[in-house]
Amino acid sequence: xxxxxxxxxxxxxxxxxxxxxxxxxxxxxxxxxxxxxxxxxxxxxxxxxxxxxxxxxxxxxxxxxxxxxxxxxxxxxxxxxxxxxxxxxxxxxxxxxxxxxxxxxxxxxxxxxxxxxxxxxxxxxxxxxxxxxxxxxxxxxxxxxxxxxxxxxxxxxxxxxxxxxxxxxxxxxxxxxxxxxxxxxxxxxxxxxxxxxxxxxxxxxxxxxxxxxxxxxxxxxxxxxxxxxxxxxxxxxxxxxx
Length: 242
Hints:
There is one protein chain. The chain is mostly beta strands and about 240 residues long. The protein is built from three helices and 18 strands. It has helices spanning about 35-45, 90-95, 125-135, and strands spanning about 5-15, 15, 20, 30, 65-70, 75-85, 100-110, 115-120, 155-160, 165, 170-175, 180, 185, 195-205, 210-220, 225, 230-235, 235-240. The strands form six sheets. A four-stranded antiparallel β-sheet has the order 5-8-1-9, with helices on one face. Strand 17 (about 230-235) and strand 18 form a beta hairpin. The longest helix has 12 residues, at about 35-45.
């Protein structure tokens, strides 16, 4: 792994988000944060990478991510009428079939989610291209939060080139999601809503998830306290890359 030097930081949000948990099928549930695979899709949409062409670009050796929860996490259920398009392309073709075309299905959504994304790319040409798009609030394709109906907005926070790595064994406050296997979480105050989730981090060119990680975060967007981990000072925030 090369040294992390310049890091791009941007915020992303929307009215709703749905980052589908892989193990849920009939009543889809959502991860609480954008996963590594979802972030790859969002950044690829901004950059204009063709579908299924970018998986190796976001291999863990080529990218480092960090995610901060900016709004308290709220989940709701909404019934969606799914239509079986295997019966035809147009609705009138589907209705003429013998099967009931609509399937009311409860989906879990995140309401008014907002996150701060920190990204370092090994490919500096690609990183500079991403910086240009973010600065101009432009995207090649429309980015969305999990599914195409949930369009995302974004705002460029900045490029930080004075990134300082802290390898303190003492307790430190961290503003981002942390990895369970690379951090020691310290809980020394009441009122925190700490959540642990196992999220997919990387998917190969065959669309097979190659790495899952367990992460901790605070559901009300409060910082966590950790020790024995690599922390990066980016602006006024302490960041842990996943």
